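Example with several molecule types.
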Amino acid sequence: MAAKIFDKETILDLTVNIIPLGIIGFFVVVFAVYDPFGYDPLASAISFGLLLVPLVALAALTYISGKAIAGDEKRSEVFLAGQATVPGSQTLEEYEAQAEPDHEPAELTDDESAEDAETEPTAQNTDD
Amino acid sequence: MEINGQLALTVLMGVFLVAVAAWLTRVENWRSYTPLASGGGAYGQESGHAHEKPGGLIRWFTTVDHKDIGMLYGLYGVIAFLVGGAMVMIMRVELADPGMTLISNTFYNSLLTSHGITMLFLFGTPIIAAFSNYFIPLVIGADDMAFPRINAIAFWLLPPAALLIWAGFLIPTGDIIPAQTAWTMYTPLSAGVGNGNQANAGVDLMLLGLHLSGVSATMGSINFIATIFTERAEEVTWANLDIFSWTILTQSGLILFAFPLLGSAMVMLLADRNFGTVFFAGEGGAILWQHLFWFFGHPEVYILVLPPMGIVSYVLPRFSGRRLFGFKFVVYSTLAIGVLSFGVWAHHMFATGIDPRLRASFMAVSMAIAIPSAVKTFNWITTMWNGRIRLTTPMLFCIGFVSNFIIGGVTGVFLASIPIDLVLHDTYYVVGHFHYIVMGAIAFAGFAGLYYWYPIFTGRMYQRKLGKWHFWLWMVGTNITFFAMILLGYGGMPRRYATYLPQFITLHQIATLGALLLLVGGFIWLYNFIISWLEGPVIESGDPWNLKEDGLYTAEWEWFDRKLQTKITDGGEQQDVATDGGHESDESDS
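Resulting structure tokens for the full complex:
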């Protein structure tokens, strides 16, 4: 189960947290190898604790949240943020499928004419 | 004799409270009161057994509806913002001249302390709570908050907290003077020892008020955690949770761990001041306070900045014509900031002489926490890149947020480096840096939210032109004021002083000029919001920002649309609405 959830896509999403983990890990190694201030049982222990506690906590939270989010992605339909309860809203898959085919650069004009014929007409007060 | 008098007062107060309780039971049948369903509200169109809300002031004093409480938080935050803004304007005008000119140095210290505490605890946290209370239940499809009554209590603790914090100003006696401890309340100054005047009761009242605001924030945070975990609609899975709710969830987690610690530290301080304890008196007492304070204080920074980041992540894509780039990056980096924020507190204490090994560790984590913040910045920029950008007022404030956040963030990365911090510590550079964040970013995002959701909470549209004047005055004013402060810091101008050496006069006057621009912008905003609320064009559509066109229509607007549809018309008066979407309206087709 866990192996399925943490597929390539999910791992890619999690890189954002893996980088700070890497930075902290780097400093753990640096301070272990190169020690300009000497060794003191208490100060050195606290010093490494200050690095290792956030490291472990971040790793744990990243794992748990990754499992929850990626798991839900696989278990049920995914919508754009804030749209899950809106009747008739597209799923993320539909949105992406619609966005992908034309790779032309987005319009730079102020033209509001809808390229998207599927968008239902709205009751708003706009001109064209 | 005196005891009899006190006894009589106590009995009188008791009778008064019983009378109030009896009266309240008459105006409201509490047992039958059920929280209204979302979409219910005063319109009561959804919930079959929804009650009519009582009218007038009673409604606002007795409400447990999340939307009403959100409005109360908003009003409270705005009032606090005006008070805190007035305080700093007096300070900035004083600083236009190097000497003690307009106000006394002690009064300057009082204003400095209260400005900080007011803006952080009475404006920042409540204005975020205004948005989260109003919108999170709507966006996640909950009927209301998980604990509506606790929600109401959490809010009603805040007005007395403000009165206590401002008590020194409000009670003009010699015994009670405003606190002059700065918001950091460093001991031994705040312990009231020595020959200073900080042993007075004004400081105790401020500490109690701050404690109360912490209790309020903690109750609110528990409520949000419970709501987001348990009250989501079935469709709103973790994968579908919106970014604003994610940031509020993370913020609530931070509050839950940070504020009780501040509360404990303040109780210890109060005990030191009043009951002769010596928590912060002995050797190491001052450093103990700093550790306790900053273990709360640094997460507090993220408590304040994460939800505004959520607002920007939520609003900015709607005016870029596309969804947020790297949505999950933003979610995970929010969580990363939440965890790491507890591992960086002593970067505020690099100059105190703590063990260099500890300093090095704090520096490493401070560097690491810059990554998730930078990731978000790139996500916002990439979302806008080649997008169909509509420069509406909320969008301008979002872009202003990103721009100011970059300057505030980059100046912060330098401060995370020990050697640079030792040079710049306690200078105006630090003041400039964190004001780029709290004013340039947090307040800008708050105003982006206020403009974006203005149609929902007022039913009307603001004046676009005034909104843009407000933005540009603030954008220019913020950068003039706080960039001048960064330069002052490079020049060695120490922070917190009411007077300064003549060599700093030009930059100080520039900073004051910028602050005056902010004042003018603030007045324009206030006028615009009040006048538009009273007379602005009525919104007739549930999609005033044309979000459906880009497929970016969200749940709170859908709720608003339903509210408009089911509203009972009272004569069919129609008004054309010019939305802030960059297009004039010709007709109303709703």
